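We read letters as residues; the fold follows as tokens. A sample entry reads:
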Amino acid sequence: MVKIFILTKRSIFLIVLVSNTINPLLASPLYTDSVSQSYQERAISYLDIQNSLTSKGLQKEIAEAKVKKLFKEDTSLKLAYLYKHPDLALSKNIVIDTFAKQALFDKYCDLNSYDSLVGFVQSIHPNLDKKQLSAIKQIAKLS
């Protein structure tokens, strides 16, 4: 009787051990449409782009006006996805510098436009694959 109890304990232990090692291998990453609070804290903000422009020698008021011209509407959610999307793998500093360069030359960046987003990402990574293009399409469709 004691042996059956020990076998049952061992088998339960083995089942738990095997399930815990296989489960992470089978799990797929979960991407939600909402961005968590900690996710937003690490995302790119207008202030980051403005600070990049002021570090290049622009006055604070001029840098603020240029950033407002760059994005005519609130696109902070799309900025967060653009920087944090795993298929794009963009560096935060490079994205900020690229947006600052566009703002410096008074270019408008429409983050709702797929073509505009593709042009922006291609200025960072010239050769885009299908995964990256589909990620850009997802970001452009966000509202």
Observations:
- Residues 33-41 have pLDDT under 50 and may be disordered.
- Helices lie at 2-26, 37-41, 46-55, 60-70, 76-84, 92-104, 114-124, 130-141.
- Residues 39-141 form one domain.
- The first helix runs from residue 2 to 26.
